[in-house]
């Protein structure tokens, strides 16, 4: 009886491990981390004496997303220049942002990074602190992505977008948009 129970236990364990190993990794939702970066940058600006707000700009977020994905997938990258030679200004312009921009990048050799670790890295780098505490930066876009052994976070800062807003898709009044809860 006990040998059957042992075989059954091993079989159940093997099936459970197979189910876990065979399951594809889920896409992480880093919204909370991205929002925390914006909040922490606002705090740094306030502590530096700025009275300007900082607004999330979808164009800068797109530029940040492009560089985040590039740095995540191209291990040779460790800064502001993309694998295709683009700069933060190129990416922002390609996303439709017209204005001066700057960028902070964190590449962490682990599955995740906390907001405190991230802001500590940037706060103690004089060039990145200068960007975060610049009162004329009024726009921001943040994106982060994870691989099993690497996390990349990019924040793109702007001094004001002179281009018109990017039009969104139109929808009938009272109808939910794409991805919106019904």
Question: What is the compact description of this entry?
Answer:
This is Cysteine-rich secretory protein family protein. This protein has 182 residues and is of the alpha+beta class. 42% of the residues lie in helices and 15% in strands.
General description of the model:
The protein is α+β, with helices and mostly antiparallel strands and 182 residues long. It has one domain (31-158): Pathogenesis-related Protein p14a (3-Layer(aba) Sandwich). The protein is built from six helices and four strands. Strands 1-3-4-2 form a four-stranded mixed β-sheet, sandwiched between helices. It is globular, with a radius of gyration of 21 Å. Residues 6-27 and 173-182 have low confidence and may be disordered.
């Amino acid at each position: 009886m006990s040998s059957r129970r042992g075989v059954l236990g091993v079989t159940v364990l093997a099936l459970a491990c197979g189910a876990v190993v065979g399951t594809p990794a889920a896409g992480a939702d880093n919204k909370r981390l991205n929002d925390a970066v914006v909040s922490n940058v606002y705090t740094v600006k306030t502590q530096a004496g700025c009275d300007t707000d900082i607004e999330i700009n979808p164009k800068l977020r797109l530029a940040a997303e492009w560089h985040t994905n590039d740095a995540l997938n191209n291990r040779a990258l460790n800064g502001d220049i993309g694998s295709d030679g683009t700069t933060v200004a190129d990416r922002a312009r390609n996303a439709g942002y017209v204005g001066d921009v700057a960028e902070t990048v964190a590449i962490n050799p682990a599955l995740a990074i906390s907001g405190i670790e991230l802001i500590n890295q940037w706060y103690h780098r004089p060039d990145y602190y200068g960007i975060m505490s610049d009162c004329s930066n009024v726009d921001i876009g943040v994106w982060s992505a994870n691989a099993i052994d690497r996390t990349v976070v990019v924040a793109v800062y702007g001094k004001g977008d002179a281009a018109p807003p990017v039009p969104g898709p139109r929808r009938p009044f009272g109808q939910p948009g794409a991805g919106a809860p019904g």
